[in-house]
Specification:
392 residues, alpha/beta, seven-stranded mixed β-sheet, globular, Amino acid/amide ABC transporter substrate-binding protein (HAAT family)
């Protein structure tokens, strides 16, 4: 008898095995390749794991935009036209926002695995990365706990940099911490000498760095080379998105860098470490790798519950109950569509991150910071109102 072969959207049943197509859109080449490679490795490792552990086979349909923002929308359209209904991918918020109109028009679902700046909730996205209350808020609270009084802000010149530093500035000023400077650098650019000149002249207690990719790597290395007095001092440099993905490139210049996120390699179990060795070019676990791995695990669990890969049914299944993943048990809010995560504060030393603070339980995402409020340090002093910022 011929094998049982029935097509159903982006999946088919053959010989008792169920197979689903899953789009993977990650820039594994280009300006932020290290981040894309790490996330892509996590997804591939999880696809292998799911195939071994169940009768579900996931067929990855892979695209590499090479860091070119113009290609994300076109590749999303191409995959959806080919019958792919679910996509894991995008690194930058720029690319995610370019993909959303295509997802809306063609009925796809994006599983977004990266930390982002918040202030978004879309019916065609599942937000699995850290939201602002998972990274900006703990980072600024840590700065205040160290009695720092002067901070300098630098970020990539697009929505991630603008929004994370806006939130950081508001919270710093509420604590009474002076923001002595704020500058933005073009995405992917290494032209930052003028920023480092200003930092060395102003000598702030800490530098809040919201750059990404090679811009961040070049900046951290150059700042370390120019101002050696900072190197090794805990929290002299603060990041909302630094992970192990490109920590090797920073070398000793990363010592003392404080990062806040949903996962660090010291929390990885042996199975996730094996995934990194098998699939990641640098062999290291990062939050990007772990979250993309978790995205595949949740997708596989959800299509099993739903019996289909139709986006509405898959999301409904994903938000019904916690799913065991590489990040731990993950719950997704059925209304806000964000994952609850346990924030960690970590400091880089000798090429690795060491966690110094961690939440005792997952914290519900608060993408609009509607439940946070600004700190009131002195009740006799009104909380400062947001000010017009003129930055360069």
């Amino acid at each position: 008898m011929p094998p049982d072969l029935r097509w159903g959207g982006a999946f088919f049943v053959s010989g008792g095995h169920v197979s689903y197509k899953l789009g993977l859109i990650f820039s594994t080449t280009g300006s932020y390749a290290a981040l894309g490679q790490s996330a892509f490795a996590g997804a591939l490792g999880a696809i292998d794991k799911v195939a071994r552990a169940s009768g579900i086979e996931i067929e990855p349909v892979i695209r590499d935009p090479g860091g070119d923002p113009a290609l994300y929308a076109a590749m999303t359209s191409e995959l959806l036209d080919a019958g792919v209904r679910n996509i894991i991918g995008a690194i930058t918020s720029w690319s995610r926002k370019d993909m959303i109109p295509i997802l809306e028009r063609k009925g796809g679902l994006l599983w977004y695995p990266c930390p982002y700046e918040g202030f978004e909730c879309n019916d065609h996205v599942v937000y699995l990365g850290a939201a602002p209350n998972h990274h900006v808020v703990p980072a600024i609270d840590w700065i205040a706990s160290q009695r720092m009084s002067r901070a300098y802000l630098v970020g990539s010149n697009y929505v991630w940099g603008w929004e994370t530093l806006r939130l950081a500035r508001d919270r710093l000023q509420a604590y009474g911490i002076e923001v002595v400077g704020e500058r933005f650098i073009a995405l992917g650019s290494d032209q930052h000498d003028h920023v480092i000149d200003e930092i060395t002249a102003l000598s702030p207690d800490c530098v809040v760095n919201s750059l990404i990719g090679p811009s961040s790597v070049g900046f951290v290395r150059s700042l370390g080379a120019r101002d050696r007095s900072r190197q090794g001092k805990a929290g002299h440099l603060i990041s909302f998105n630094q992970t192990e993905a490109d920590l090797d490139e920073l070398g000793a210049h990363a010592d003392g860098l404080l990062s806040v996120g949903s996962f660090f390699a010291e929390d990885a179990d042996p199975a996730l470490c094996a995934v990194a060795r098998a699939h990641a070019p640098n062999g290291r676990v990062s939050a990007f790798l772990a979250t993309a791995h978790a995205a595949v695990e949740i997708f596989a669990d959800s299509v099993t519950r739903a019996g289909t890969d139709a986006p509405e049914a898959v999301f409904r299944a994903a938000s019904m109950a916690p799913v065991s993943t590489a990040l731990g048990a993950i719950s997704i809010d059925p209304v806000m569509r964000h994952a609850a995560l346990a924030p960690r504060v970590a400091i880089a030393r000798d090429g690795r991150f060491r966690v110094i603070e961690r939440a005792t339980a997952p914290v519900a995402a608060d993408p609009y910071l509607s439940r946070q409020g600004l700190p009131v340090v002195d009740r006799r002093r009104p909380v400062p109102r947001p000010q017009l910022r003129i930055v360069k």
